[in-house]
Amino acid sequence: MNIDDNKNLKESIECDELCFGYDSSSDKEEENLINNENEFSESMEVSNCSYKIQEVEKKLNELSYDDMWGIEFDTVDQCCDFYRNYAKVHGFVARLDEKGQDFNGNLNMRQMVCNREGTRRKKYLEMENRKKDHKPITRVMCQANIRFHYDLILQKWRVTKFEETHNHDLIPPKYIQFVPAYRTMTDADKAQADSLHFYGVRTCHIMGFMVAQKGGPNRTRFTKKDLYNHFDRSRRAKIKDGDAHAALSYLISKADEDPLLQGKFTLKDGKLDNLVWADGSSITDYQCFGDVLAFDTTYQKNKYNRPLVVFSGTSHHGQTCIFCCGLLSDEKRETYILVLNMFMEIMGNKQPIAVVRDGDLAMREAIKEVLPTAAHRLCA
Q1: Which of 129, 166, 238, 281 lies 20 to 30 angstroms, CA to CA, from 325?
Q2: Which residues of 310-344 are buried (b: 16+ CB within 10 A; e: fewer)?
């Protein structure tokens, strides 16, 4: 293949994702050509995608106001994809708005607007006892919008309303890719980043390498924060249910060495919710020194930011004895009642004479219900 042939091939390539079948007279050869162009769709710019308007092909950045009324779509998804990419080329972000249905419940109207349409709700502006500052106002009553209706005769979706004027500044093309709605990492970017991260390259160095490789930040299409988020999601996907499984496996392995070890846990939505455990020596200590029980949940220094409950007491030598430990999902009354019932079941339902606690009202109510005969004392 010579240079001219290669050039002609590149000019014939169009983006498959955005080139819909607006011309009903297309034959099988054109359909085959579109199928072959799938391999190149990810590498083409959005503005290079052409649309047929009255037998004339125009790119997204060349579409005029009059051209918008001549475009037809087969599905509503094609309508939405078209306007989203039109918005990206012209420097704004589109979002879904109203929709309409016929008497049979079928969708026959869909409207999309600029994401700066409307105003912020008054209830968010007039909130009392606000702890955080207001976020910057982004909705400025922008009137730019487009509306699609389904034509029953042609069986096509057509534009029935279009407003292209914005009342705010549009985003320059070189910065549009850094808008959160358009920031993306391709599969190739993720694979390369994962490979470098696997061999211990720091995230900031990976970002610098990929920026230099692509020829500058304007060609990267994602930020360093996106890269950090990708690694964080990958890590969470790998350890999903892994930490809980590891904790339970550890307790099971310890139970093989300590027959008296006991543990109880609850699940919520398939995830570990509450976990309580005590080994054999702790259970024995409670039978001897469990008349006074210290119940405190002031420790939240774990990476899950969950309350760690420590049931403790004092031996005849004045030494602290740990009777039981537990990880709680929250510090609500119902959770405390559940954990206390687990604790009493593990300890053979031996009731303490006195309970030393902090000033948590939810804890006090739970102790009154589960340990009604115990005297309450506040810790100093």
Answers
A1: 238
A2: bbbbeeeeeeebbbbbbbbbeeeeebbbbbbbbbe
The bridge status of strand 354-357 relative to strand 72-73 is unpaired
**Segment 196-241, tens digit of pLDDT:** 998 989 999 999 999 999 888 878 888 889 999 998 888 766 655 5
**Strands 292-299 and 354-357, bridge-based pairing:** parallel
The terminus-to-terminus CA distance of the chain in angstroms comes to: 87
* Region of 371 on the Ramachandran plot (φ > 0 left; ψ -120 to 50 alpha; else beta): beta
Assess contact for 272 and 334: CB atoms under 8 A.
Answer: no
Task: Give the C-alpha separation, 281 to 38, whole Å.
Answer: 66
Give the model's pLDDT for residue 127.
Answer: 74
DSSP letters of 134-168? PPPP-------EEEEEEETTTTEEEEEEEE---SS
Q: What is the DSSP letter of 311?
A: E
Q: Which two tokens stand for residue 273?
A: 């919710």
Element (H, E) at 305: none
Q: Could you give the maximum distance between any two Cα atoms of the chain, in Å? A: 96
pLDDT digits (tens, 9 = 90+) for 23-46: 333 444 444 433 433 333 333 356
